[in-house]
Design a protein that fits this description.
Length: 106
């Protein structure tokens, strides 16, 4: 009898936890856009602050390395932090800093 009471109590607690309000977590309005180059963009406007933020997530890493080119994604990510043919790492960092941006690869 005691086990039955505990079982019913646990089921009741779990059911009560599942019956929370559907407004607990509400996604903001957003717009999905696909650019001509295939880049998927999700726009989430929020006019509550005069602030702009952007995150760019790129599918990278060993799982996306081409066949027979292990480590390519990691190599490219690390080299981007070293600069390019036209701009040194310092010039890239300065240009990004001037617009309040940053770059990192991991």
């Amino acid at each position: 009898m005691f086990r039955r009471l505990i079982g019913i109590s646990l089921v009741s607690i779990v059911a009560a936890g599942c019956a929370t309000s559907s407004n607990f977590f509400k996604l903001r309005q957003h717009e999905d856009v696909v650019l001509s180059n295939g880049l998927k963009v999700i726009l989430v406007p929020d006019a509550s602050l005069p602030y702009f933020s952007m995150n760019l997530l790129v599918k990278a890493g060993a799982v996306n390395d081409p066949e027979a080119k292990d480590g390519l994604a990691s190599l490219v990510a690390n080299l981007l932090e070293k600069g390019t043919e036209k701009r040194s790492a310092t010039e890239l960092a300065t240009a990004l800093e001037q617009i309040g941006a940053s770059f990192s690869a991991s």
